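Question:
Write out your own:
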Amino acid sequence: MELPFAGNPTLGTALALAEGSDDVLLLETGRGVVTVRFAGVTRGAGFGWMTQPLPTREPFVLVSELFAALGVRHAILPIELYDNGPRYVLLELETPAEVAGLRPDLSRLSALGSVAFVVFARSGQRWKVRVFAPGEGIPEDPGTGAAAGALAAHLTRQGRVPFATEFVIEQGAEISRPSTLHALAFGDAHEVSLVEVGGSAIIVARGEFTAY
């Protein structure tokens, strides 16, 4: 299916289009124009920051069903659904070990609909994250740029991270594809005004398609 917005593909596309080390690119998505700026591009690799669509939010009502599917008993913060193109349900656990040890019932998660479940915990100055989206054909995602933006909005709104403060997300280790993302949000407790997510991208192949 087509997504209105997705973080990692947006960053990768921008790198493929970038021509200079200080390029700023504007990419039009189904959720508006995304700006990507690079802090240097060398030999098909670079670190870029992208603005993201501001997410809408609403309470998530199927809490008991979610707990049963994940095999957990409680969460720290209110469980909310954020929509910035994809839809994400965010749930904070006490420790990174709890997040790492999750063995969710993917069939039960899939029954909750076309939504991704972002489970996270603070790990020192970083955040341990896992993202499950079996209802969208993705048992577990190793790196989710759009979810990082939703998480930035959620953590700042809830006072877990100060506004305008960069934090680091670690994801994907459990499926042997570790990734690192950077995120921050601007605004106040009443309104998030800007979300940015950063990460590294590397071009690993080039080719051509010829239509007949």
Notes: Helices lie at 7-17, 63-70, 96-100, 106-110, 145-157. The chain has a mean pLDDT of 94. The first helix runs from residue 7 to 17.
